[in-house]
Amino acid sequence: MRDIHYNTIAETVARLCIEANTLLPGQVEGLLCSACESEPYAPARDTLQLICKNACIAREQGMAICQDTGMAVVYAELGQDAHIVGGLLSDAVNEGVARGYTDGYLRKSIVRDPIRRGNTGDNTPAVLHLTLVEGDGLKLTVAPKGFGSENMSRLCMLTPAQGLQGVKDFVVETARLAGANPCPPMMLGVGVGGTFEKVTELAKEALIELREGPHPDPYYDVLEKELLEAVNALGIGPQGFGGKTTCLSVRIKAYPTHIAGLPVAVNVGCHVTRHASALL
Amino acid sequence: MIRLTAPFDKKDLKTLHAGDNVLVTGVIYTARDAAHGRLCAALEKGEELPVDLHGQTIFYAGPTPTPPGRPSGAIGPTTSMRMDAYTPAMLAYGVNALIGKGGRSEAVRLALKENGSVYFAAIGGCAAYMAACIEQLDVVAYDDLGTESIKRLVVRDLPLTVAIDSEGNDAYAMGVQTYLESV
Question: With 90 as the cut, is the pLDDT of residue A254 above it?
Answer without folding.
Answer: yes
